[in-house]
Structure formats: C-alpha cells, structure tokens
Design a protein that fits this description.
8-stranded antiparallel sheet; 24% helix; 5-stranded mixed sheet; 29% strand; single chain
Amino acid sequence: MTDLPCRWEGNDNLFKLKDRHSTYHCLAATHEEIATNFVSRLHVSYKNLPLRVYQISSKFRDEMNPKLGLLRGKEFLMKDMYTFDSNEKNSQVTYEALCSAYSQLFRMLGINAMKVKGSSGDIGGKSSHEFHFISDVGEDELLYCPKCRNGINGELYEGKTIVCEACNISYEKCNGIEVGHAFLLGTTYSKPFQAKFGSSENVTEILQMGCYGLGLSRILAASVECLSKDDSIRWPFLIAPFYVSVIPPKKGSKEEYVQALAYSLAESLTKISWLKSNIIIDDRTNFTIGKRINEASSLGIPYVVVVSKRLSKTPKESYVMLVCVHEDQALSMKCVYKWFAVFERADKVFLTKSIVEDQRLLSVKKTLRK
C-alpha cells in the first residue's frame, strides 16, 4: 500500500499501526493492493480472462463518527471482488455486467434500491457507481430523475439544479443508505504492481481492473431499517431466519389434542422445495399462542401457521390460522399447503406492502376465499 502514496498518506479512514520493529501495518478497509499483487504473481494468459477474484471477510475503517449500529461501524463484513480484463472495452463490459447483477440482487430482496453515479474517493479510478437503499435514515443525499431513475450522489453537484436531458425533468432529492459500490479502475493498481497478461500476439500487457463491494452487514441493517415497523422486524424474504413458524396449541388447552397435526403440517410443507430447511416448529407449548406469534414477528419470520380446531360445517376438519405480515386468514390444512406450493421460489412470495403483489398470489387468494 505504501507503493501508492495516495492510498496511504492522508487517508484518515485507515487503521494504521506501527509495530515494535517500526514496521507499518494497517487493518484493511479494502483489498485492491493485495488482490492486484496476488494476480501479478500469476502467469495470466489472455485465455484466462476475464479473471474475477472475490472474498467475503471483515473490513475495518477508523470512522470518525460510528453510529446507527451496523450502518456505520468500525468493523463490518464485506463481499469484495476484483476483476481483470485485457482492455478497456472488455473491462467496461464486465463493469456493466456486475452492476446489473447487483441491481438484480436488490430487486430479488424486494427493497427500493437506486444506482447512482458516485465519487471514486480514496480508491481512485475512472468512474464509479453507488447502490443505495432509499431511506430517510440514509446519510447520503441523492439526486435522481423520477421517471428513468438515473441519479447521482449529491456531493458531486452540490447546490446545482440538474435536469435529466433524456426525460426533460428536473432531478428530485432523497436520502439513501449506501450498500454497494462499483469502481472502474483502469490501471490505477495494475500498473504500479505490474499485473500483466500474455496477449494472443505474445505481447505482455497491463491488465485493466475493476473492483466491486457489497456491505453485507450493512445490507442486513439497512433492510431492517427500510422494511420494519416499530413493533416487528421485517427481513427481505430471502434472508429471513425462517420462512414459516408452525405453532401448535398451548399445553393444557382444549385444543391440545391436535398438536400432532402441527407436526404433520410442518413435515408436509418441507416437501415444498423452497421451504425445505426454512420451517421452524415453535414447540414451547408452555407459552401462549399470542406470545409465540409476537416472538416470531420480532424475529422477522414472515409467516406463522397456528394450528387449531375451529367449528365449521364440517366439525372434523382441522383449520389453521395463517398469520402474514399484512393480514390473517383462517384456512384449511389443504389450502395452507396450496398457498405455499403455488410458488416455485421464495422471491416470488409477496412479503410487504411496499412491493407490488405477485399476480399469481392474488389469484391464489381469490381461489382460497371461494
């Protein structure tokens, strides 16, 4: 890192250390230097490109004002990737592909995210884009077109009025929590570290680079911030601790004799591929059903199935209460299975009112109500 003075000198966010032998060290905030040095020691051929090196590890920054828990801490978990291409054109193709993958990931999580042009900051490079969850808690002010959603970080154009030329609309403002960042680095790191490859013409050339980061611990905190209510945690469905909590009747209650049905239902639901390993049975039958429902809600489990016996035209039929994050419904055991079986993937399940309901779920609801 000392080979790049711009990264070492004047970088107040680095945890810098000096050992007893007067050797300098730092707790890494990112790993551009290490990744580039690693690749420079390989015998890279044009046949190996594009090359993508990634890791998931703890990172450290000497934040001046750590706050808001995982949203801004001195230690955090990050997925960082470093890409190597043969020329600028191919590097741009890789950059666009990975930015698209990030956008797709956030769409799967079901959170209102925005990609905006950002500052390259201490990392450097030719250009960069940030990915933000839209939230009033966010510390970044974003300027964006409400029609096409092209945007920029407000720090790049402070105090100026911007008009989106393509849409002929003035940019609007909102706050965002940065959860991802992509940088087109060019040869900022590959040239000093002599990271090269052998071309098809048997010529040694400098690699073109990009780097990409997802703040995993920040995504967790930002997701809760964007989706939750005062009395309950709401996770994106794909990262909820469990998808379904099955609650048997309370021990000693009049409905205790249908406990076996709870276990039978849970077992049948695990046969649905996307529910496998994502169902928990809350068998603390010494607690009331209400307490267990509240605890499931506080943990962010999106669906709770309460097994009970309800009077109906067919008294022998067992009914369950399906408790969703937005409504409760009394359904037969068979209908509950149909409710979940209609979806082949977890990301297709409607979770919060902030997401447009899947049309198939609307169809299922109508069918179940008949």
